[in-house]
Amino acid sequence: MKKLAIVYHSGYGHTAFAAQKVFEGAATVDGIEAKLVAVGGDHVTPWEELKNADALIFGTPTYMGSVSAPFKGFMDESSKVWMGREWKDKVAAGFTVSGSPSGDKQSTLQALSTFALQHGMVWVGYDRMPEVYTGVAPENARNRLGSFSGLMLQAAQTAPDQSFLPGDLASASDFGQRVATLFAKKIR
Amino acid sequence: MKKLAIVYHSGYGHTAFAAQKVFEGAATVDGIEAKLVAVGGDHVTPWEELKNADALIFGTPTYMGSVSAPFKGFMDESSKVWMGREWKDKVAAGFTVSGSPSGDKQSTLQALSTFALQHGMVWVGYDRMPEVYTGVAPENARNRLGSFSGLMLQAAQTAPDQSFLPGDLASASDFGQRVATLFAKKIR
Amino acid sequence: MKKLAIVYHSGYGHTAFAAQKVFEGAATVDGIEAKLVAVGGDHVTPWEELKNADALIFGTPTYMGSVSAPFKGFMDESSKVWMGREWKDKVAAGFTVSGSPSGDKQSTLQALSTFALQHGMVWVGYDRMPEVYTGVAPENARNRLGSFSGLMLQAAQTAPDQSFLPGDLASASDFGQRVATLFAKKIR
Amino acid sequence: MKKLAIVYHSGYGHTAFAAQKVFEGAATVDGIEAKLVAVGGDHVTPWEELKNADALIFGTPTYMGSVSAPFKGFMDESSKVWMGREWKDKVAAGFTVSGSPSGDKQSTLQALSTFALQHGMVWVGYDRMPEVYTGVAPENARNRLGSFSGLMLQAAQTAPDQSFLPGDLASASDFGQRVATLFAKKIR
Fold this sequence. Notes:
Chain A has 188 residues and is of the alpha/beta class. Helix content of chain A is 36%, strand content 21%.
């Protein structure tokens, strides 16, 4: 079994809800043992567990145009891991959540990929062609927002389980499955 | 009168249509003489005119995650202007059009702002709070996509005059007016 | 007098040392009242003072490819200011310090400019042509690293007052002076 | 044998010279058949050959803060390949050359990675810790500039074979070898 950890910070529960969907998608793939790992705030980062994982998917809200401060705290704490090259050649991917369709989320994905590449990781994006192009209704379409560097999700300011369109939730599990599949089949 | 030029490339007419709306918004501002300047393809860039302008708004489609190749041709041609610092301290802003809500358009705006800042220009973004937050229907909302580094517009693959939501067109003229107003009132 | 605040976080004193040089450059400009404001850690952000400033220069180390977590904490805290549009139309600029010549510092400057543009601020970069091009020795050259979106500085892992090349320190005061001058003369 | 193509545009020969070094590094790896492919200008892009390659390393000068216009022409031309998802799951990496140490080269690497991820490719960076940190003299150090998202090289405005420091050339072959090795050993 290959180990995949979804490492996320959630401020108000929306990113946690999305992380759960990414987890569910990844967990459908044979040979993959997926796990959710919350970081930031009172959470103690399980560094040993992350060291033993083969792939890490990073998730964070977009706050003020980049990753949340608690997630940045996790990133900065990883500088010892960086010095030791513990994550070198592992697979990495990322997703982010904010209130607008675009909402400067690409800036967050760039911060995540720059971070992962500093660690010497291999970056996997979201390959799904926006399904709107093939006639699927926007509310049901996967990759509705049109992002390839990673997964972008839009959440309304309502309770997490009511704040996402069905297509965005389907995108989250699709993305988890894509990363896990590529990882299981193509990357040793 | 201060001179403002909207410098754009359009592949299929959608960016030209958006540029016209940006122009119309800028032209409403007292003391501003706005002008449309198409670049790329067979167009000969009027370098002297750009030198005499006080502000430049750059517009391009997003193709394959960045500015269009013809617009990049214009950017590369400007290296002589760059050497001579002809555009130093002028005002700059940018907009881009693509088919998806996000569609990696932020990457294009970063390319435009990096370019303008290489020239020593001052970069003005789009300050409008997404009107969806205040209850305006998405199709009519200004800054619907939620972009602040510059204006993002989404165009369907239909005829240019039918491919934009009313709110996106209102955003374009609003953006032109914002840049021109800031320029006329605040920046000498 | 126009008010300019240099808002920075420093982890080990290098960014504080650079901020002091930026301050000294800005303070030479007639009509400018410059001030240093440290944020992050135990510092209490003087929000009222920042509201009253006309220009803000942001400074942060580059940690793991972006702004430091304490600086990101400041950015996230500013979301109330963002909602109230308190900083709209103010002038903004940024600088960052890390150990390598490039060191993914552009990613940090992008995070700073994206942040400022979310606030509706006007972004001023560093206009100085790299003086290496005109025959100045690298150790004395201003804008040695070749960055235009903002100021990049390289610091060795020694005491802050011994970690910068003379040209990098000259760049810092030159940058402070450039922002203050443009602000005093051109932007009301 | 796995096929790796180094796809580059060179304006004045410096990027071609660097591409040759990347090629030499890749060619040392068992099981890899490396090839140089020039694009832009009068070159006809061998699309069928690129379709048959398993990995593509993109190389371009940084002009005005992003990829060169001829390289962007190649990127835009690839939109048919993008529609057909021909490059999905292939390995991608990138390098860029300019005159300054930083020189806004990260913006170019972001354009290249955004492009590759639009194609559904997997992005591999440069994992080498800057050797300056371990006491190697700057002129001989690999990853001297400190870039992880891809390879950055600095070239003086002299003849290509005299314009690079020995460490930068060593970085180029090291980078080619790293991508090829990761590809041969880890990614099927």
